[in-house]
Amino acid sequence: MDNLIPALPDTPVARQAVEYVRSCESEPVANHSIRSYVFATLLAGHEGLEVDADLLFYACVLHDLGTSPSAPGKERFEVEGADMAAEFLTRNGCGARETDAVWEAITLHTSPGIAERRGVLAYLTRSGVGADFGRGVDFVTDAQGEAVHRRYPRLNMVTVLVDDIVRHATRAPHAAARYTIAGELTRERGEHGTPTSLELATNASRWGA
After folding, report:
1. What are phi and psi of 38, to 5 degrees?
2. Residue that wins the pLDDT comparison between 209 and 170
3. 103: closest CA among 58, 71, 73, 67?
4. Strands (E), the chain
5. Which residue of 14, 39, 98, 147 could cross-link 4, Cys pair, CB 3.0 to 4.6 Å?
6. Among 59, 132, 47, 141, which residue's Cα sits nearest to residue 102?
7. Radius of gyration (Cα) for the chain, nearest Å?
8. Ranges of each domain in the chain
9. Neighbouring residues of 74: CB distance < 8 A, sequence distance ≥ 6
């Protein structure tokens, strides 16, 4: 991998996590999840924050499992994704405390003002995800941005991810509660069609779609 950006953890469980995500999610969403980890790691270095790199990797890379067809489709995608991540980690020998920390970080990754107050892992997970939508990316150099997108192309990520979130949200009432991101994206699609406000904002951001 380009030495301008951090390498992914090279452990058996980390490799299985990537395989799991790529088996469940489309390539654009899987690449988004991996880029989120790269951006979160760059932010941690920029701000001098210490975090368990493996837990940050799991929280970022597994955070959108709930948008995949493999999710049950009964609850919010953040919760179902966190449950799927917890099942994966438990199955692979991760301890209860570490698994719970990853679960919390994933459930809160769409919760501004809450994730930031639940510790470094939740903060970096949300920030890494947000950075891939072009939010708060002043800490990323142009060369680093080019490197991460060369290694993990965007492939019209935002529209693919919105499609997946809306598809999941239509499977059950609890999956699209009002004022959740899934509920609002579903409402926007129904009222205005595409693109949604998230797509418009991301398309206009530093990285584009």
Report:
1. -60, -45
2. 170
3. 58
4. none
5. 147
6. 59
7. 16
8. 12-154
9. 80, 171, 172, 174, 175
- Segment 92-144, tens digit of pLDDT: 999 999 999 999 999 999 999 999 999 999 999 999 999 999 999 999 999 99
| Nearest partner of 61 among 98, 109, 100, 95, judged by Cα | 109
Eight-state DSSP code of residue 202: H
* pLDDT(3) > 90: no
Q: What percent of the chain has pLDDT over 70?
A: 99
Read off the tokens for 83.
């449950």
The CATH class given to the 12-154 domain equals mainly alpha
Helix (H/G/I), strand (E/B), else coil: 74: coil
Q: Is the pLDDT of residue 1 over 60?
A: no
Is the CB of residue 49 less than 8 Å from the CB of residue 139? no
Contact (Cβ atoms closer than 8 angstroms) between residue 107 and residue 80: no
b/e string for 130-168 if b means 16 or more Cβ within 10 A? bbbbbeebeebeeebbebbbebbebeebbbbbbbbbbbb
- For residues 116 and 122, the answer to whether their CB atoms sit within 8 Å is yes
Residues 16-55 pLDDT 10s: 999 999 999 999 999 999 999 999 999 999 999 999 999 9
